[in-house]
Amino acid sequence: MMTDDAIPLAVTVPQACRLSGYGPTTIWALVRDGRLRAVRVPGIRRTLVAYDSLRDLLMGPASPQPRRGGWPGKNNQPRESTL
């Protein structure tokens, strides 16, 4: 018997959509890119999304790297005043 607070091993794509707020096209793109791990059970025509990969995508890695700030590709220097 499963309790309400049990963490699933994997969820369906529609469940991943509800949990993340992403649409199915985005979920499939993340699976294709390798940012979400897909689980296939032999003999069953259904792809599941590994819950831990969904959690890591949404919450970040367990030990986050320090942020450098700014947008990638920008030099992050303050603008000079033109007044």
Helix and strand element order? EHHEEH
Category by helix and strand content:
alpha+beta
User: What's the mean pLDDT score?
Assistant: 82
Q: Per the principal axes of the C-alpha atoms, what is the gross shape?
A: elongated
Could you tell me the strand content as a percent range? Answer: 5-15%
What's the helix and strand layout?
Blueprint lengths: L9 E3 H8 L3 H10 L4 E3 L6 E4 H9 L24
Antiparallel strand pairs: 1-3, 2-3
Describe this structure in words.
The protein is α+β, with helices and mostly antiparallel strands and 83 residues long. It has a domain at 10-59. It has helices at 13-20, 24-33, 51-59, and strands at residues 10-12, 38-40, 47-50. A three-stranded antiparallel β-sheet has the order 1-3-2. A hairpin with a 6-residue loop joins β2 (38-40) and β3 (47-50). The longest helix is centred in the middle third of the chain and has 10 residues, at 24-33. It starts with 9 loop residues before the first strand and ends in a 24-residue tail after the last helix.
In short:
With 83 residues, the chain is an alpha+beta fold. 33% of the residues lie in helices and 12% in strands.
Short descriptors:
83 residues, 3-stranded antiparallel beta sheet, 3 helices
